[in-house]
Amino acid sequence: MRLPHFLRNVILTALLALAALLLWSALQHPESTLEIRATRAGVSSPDGFYVWHHLDANGIPFKSITPQGNGLIIRFDSSAQSDAAREVLNRTLPQGYIIAQQEEDNAALSLLSRLRHDRHRLG
């Protein structure tokens, strides 16, 4: 059984609108987050003031530095700021810390993030 031409167009238009809404939603929230945590037991989390000092000295703006569990969460306005901060902190923090991009809870951002990282798999 074939769908009438009108119904096919309505379904296609609805799917395109949904995809556009998902993309728009993801682009409206460009906030980026880094997480710093110790690589092994016995190493304490880095001092927030120490991190603040090095980011400020390198002219990298950030929204907040918050302790969470055994680490720190640093929020930025953009991924460019986050990338610059990661470079600075990799140079300045002593050995024993992991600096990682924290995954967002937003499903749209998660999907876009996976597509960006798996770009080589797309055909």
Automatic annotation (TrEMBL):
Gene3D superfamilies (UniProt xref): 3.30.70.260
SecD export protein N-terminal TM domain span: 8-101
Family matches, as InterPro entries: Modulator_MzrA, SecD-TM
Keyword set, alphabetical order: Cell inner membrane, Cell membrane, Membrane, Transmembrane, Transmembrane helix
Membrane topology reported for the UniProt record: Single-pass membrane protein
Any one annotated GO CC term: plasma membrane
Protein family per UniProt: Belongs to the MzrA family.
Task performed by this protein: Modulates the activity of the EnvZ/OmpR two-component regulatory system, probably by directly modulating EnvZ enzymatic activity and increasing stability of phosphorylated OmpR.
HAMAP family per UniProt: Modulator_MzrA
NCBIfam families: PRK10629.1
Record protein name field: Modulator protein MzrA
